[in-house]
UniProtKB/TrEMBL annotation:
Signal peptide positions on this chain: none
Name of protein: Dyp-type peroxidase
This protein's record includes keyword Iron: yes
GO molecular function: heme binding; metal ion binding; peroxidase activity
Keyword tags: Iron, Metal-binding, Oxidoreductase, Peroxidase
Limits of the Dyp-type peroxidase C-terminal domain: 147-309
Domain of life: Eukaryota
Length: 322
């Protein structure tokens, strides 16, 4: 999807287009009350590029990267007097059968590398610097599972935009000039019910997702009745334009604890696009016919963040340090 307005905006963004990595940490924090905590956070954000270099330079082939994003309430605490047009807290969705809950989160770090130790070391130093100014609300360590499969067995991420389309789908453009180059982020931690899923016939699993499991080939879209996950997650506006998001989902788990999950993370230029996907999944289209993936996957967290362009992040930091 190439939307209007994006081409004319100079590209200054965080490393949202970094390729799918082998390892990732998804770290959600809340920030303590008071100006002192905010000052510590601003100082750490100011030095983040240096911290990436400090750890990442130890193995450049490890391609360490980190995206920083802020939640709606934290954004307001910086008191810059302006905010991204669509930034707001996660809106919980109560479907007839399944719920997408909203959970706390002020700051989000998406840490990626080809090596788990790079992610670990970066996270360790980052949390050390932030100290008691933050509390960890959620921490998930993800890994690549064979040919980028989720733990339900399907290749995950195929329909992601590529090349020029990544920016057009994920970066705010001239529609909100002051925040051009930023990106809206929706994250949700899902836990899977593996045994009932494993009891389904293979062709039933394929109908639920909308792709063949081994070959990854797409199945035709149903035009009425029960729709597959990939059909419910396809958003076409009134003009017939399809709106994509960039997903960087990763499996995580602890077999010894019976924990099997998918961490969903979606970057988008327009927050409403991911919101619409969630509504179609949880409420169904037609209403009542929810995404059957949810019968085997429960959302335990839900939060919205904005990953500002580097220059906007610097402005936030300056506003607190002034
Ligand atoms: C497609 C898995 C949650 C949005 C897919 C595909 C798989 C998958 C296997 C097909 C291959 C691909 O194109 O990537 C999962 C799992 C989830 C999950 C295991 C969590 C348990 C979500 C959520 C959203 C979403 C919460 C959006 C809010 C999409 C989109 C596509 C997709 C946009 C591509 C549709 C297209 O073909 O155009 N997902 N997904 N997914 N999913 Fe998910």
């Amino acid at each position: 999807m190439v939307g209007s307005g994006w081409d004319r905006v100079p590209i200054d963004s965080q490393s949202i287009d970094a390729p799918l990595s082998r390892a990732a940490v998804f770290l959600t924090l809340t920030v303590a009350e008071g100006h002192e905590a905010l000052q510590v956070v601003a100082g750490v954000l100011d030095g983040l590029d240096d911290l990436i270099k400090t750890v990442g330079f130890r193995d450049l082939n490890g391609r360490l990267s980190c995206i920083t994003a802020l939640g709606s309430a934290l954004w307001d605490r910086f008191q810059t007097g302006k905010r991204p047009k669509e930034l707001r807290p996660f809106l919980p969705i109560e479907g007839a059968k399944h719920t997408a809950p909203a959970t706390p989160g002020d700051l989000f770090f998406h840490i990626r590398a080809e090596r788990e130790d790079l992610c670990f070391e970066f996270e360790r130093l980052l949390l050390d610097q932030l100290g008691s100014s933050v509390t960890v609300a959620d921490e998930v360590v993800g890994f690549r599972y064979f040919d980028s499969r989720d733990l339900l067995g399907f290749v995950d991420g195929t329909a992601n935009p590529t090349g020029h389309d990544i920016g057009a789908s994920t970066l705010v453009g001239s529609e909100d000039q002051a925040f051009a180059g930023g990106s809206y982020l929706v994250v949700q931690k899902y836990l899977h019910q593996m045994q009932p899923w494993a009891r389904l016939a293979k062709d039933e699993q394929e109908r639920i997702i909308g792709r063949e499991i081994v070959s990854n080939v797409e199945l035709p879209d149903a035009t009425s009745g029960q729709k597959s996950h990939k059909t419910l997650a396809t958003i076409v506006d009134d003009d017939g334009t399809e709106h994509d998001i960039l997903r960087d989902n990763m499996p995580f788990g602890r077999p010894g604890q019976g924990e099997y999950g998918t961490y969903f993370i979606g970057y988008s230029r327009h927050l409403w696009v991911t919101q619409k996907m969630l509504e179609r999944m949880f409420l169904g289209d037609p209403p009542g016919m929810h995404d059957r993936l949810l019968d085997f996957s429960t959302a335990h967290t839900g939060a919205v963040f904005f990953a500002p362009a580097p220059r906007t992040l610097s402005e936030l930091v300056e506003a607190v340090q002034a």
